Amino acid sequence: MAAITTVLLEFLKPGDLLLFSSPLYGGSDHFIKKILIKFGVNVLEFRVGQSKEQIIELVKKSGLADKLAMVYIETPANPTNDLIDIRGSKDIAKHFSTPEKEVILAVDNTYLGPIWQHPIKHGADLVLYSATKYIGGHSDVIAGACLGTHELMKRVKGLRSFLGNMASPNTGWLLMRSLETLKVRMDAQAFNANKVAEFLNTHPKVGKVYFIGNLTEKDGEQYQIKQRQCLTNGGMISFDVKGGEAEAFKVLNSLKMIKLAVSLGGTESLAEHPATMTHSDVDHDLKESLSITDKMIRVSIGVENYEDIIYDLKQALEN
Ligand SMILES: Cc1ncc(COP(=O)(O)O)c(C=O)c1O
Prior knowledge:
The protein has helices at about 1-10, 25-35, 50-60, 85-95, 115, 150-165, 170-180, 180-200, 220-230, 245-255, 285-290, 305-315, and strands spanning about 15-20, 40-45, 70-75, 105-110, 125-130, 145-150, 205-210, 235-240, 260, 270, 295-300. With about 325 residues, the chain is an alpha/beta fold. The strands form two sheets. The protein has a six-stranded mixed beta sheet with strand order 2-1-3-4-5-6, sandwiched between helices. A five-stranded mixed beta sheet has the order 7-8-11-10-9.
């Protein structure tokens, strides 16, 4: 959140317009809708599935097209794994740029880490990470990262100094240690996630499974985006249990190896209930319309033997 909020505060000023994708991680959603607006920044949300032309129309209709300063996207989105077109978002930013004012594109790449998706290659100006997740990888560090051109990073670093949210030497040391194993950890997590999704896809107590690997040509644009920008299916799976909150809580409380916690991307598998945990503060109707309902469970797949992860999920579902 330090990296994300520093970028939003540095590149937006009162009167500007921020265009952002939905859903977002609950903390980012909260900062944009409840804090950024207190500083006079106008905010406009677009949904997965809206075409480039529809989004351009949405910005024009807001009457603030000339004020658009930043497009902010999170892809895949937490917790639904919805994909947003990075190249298309850059086209929207370019459409509203003028010689005097360049609209910048910032991409939260936390869900696919630095290994599985490379937003700068697709046109992003700034790439953001919760380094707490895959980069840190051991659930023992909280940090953020921001990447971009020297010119943009100079501004980010400047505001970071005034906000005082730079990482400590100890955090830096933990992150350097983690980078040595980043690829092997992430390879194992992506491998395991494919196996776990295969299991969930056919379990009678499981409804919809939200996993990038489940996208097929039938999913049209979402599948095309996956083919263009995702290098693996990632390590995050959300799924609906048949029933509602009580059934979802029962599964979560029955897990033995997988821990109940909100973080993600670490070596150990974690499970959580987005509607009441990571996304508890998101508007109820918006959550419903985005499929973040009481029956949804989100699992971050770790590096354990995939058979153990499946065994644990199976016994919890059948408990
Ligand atoms: C997609 C995404 N972005 C940002 C964050 C914020 O990360 P942190 O807790 O490290 O501030 C999270 C945390 O869950 C996240 O999932």
